[in-house]
Model the fold of this input.
Amino acid sequence: MPEMNREQVTTDGTGKARRNRLGPMGFVLAFGVVGMLADVVYEGARSITGPFLATLGASAVMVGFITGFGEAVALVLRLGTGPLADRTRKYWSLTIAGYAVTVVAVPAQAVSTVSAASPSSDRLGRDR
Done:
């Protein structure tokens, strides 16, 4: 396994050699930590969505509708983003964009007065 964590040498389009900062094992571990922290943030925000919407005056029916709407939007977007990733072959770009949406949407819930937009946008980033 030690050879898996060594820096790799690759060539870019100009033929120049460049060193990757992380070997395969380091990359997997680093991305795993990023994914874990994003999940912690997302699950923490998801657990307070109901009480947060209640402070904005939403009824239980409204909370259910808003969270259900967020889930529905996320599921519908999966129908488009999967084929988009396959067609463009930009898997990492779409994955990083998903994490970026989560990073922006979760803190936006704290300052949002538009109750439906914030929890729904959080689901958009989560389903990368």
User: Anything to note?
Assistant: The mean pLDDT is 77. Residues 60-88 form the longest helix (29 residues). The helical segments are 24-47, 49-55, 60-88, 91-111, 117-126. The two ends are 30 Å apart (CA to CA).
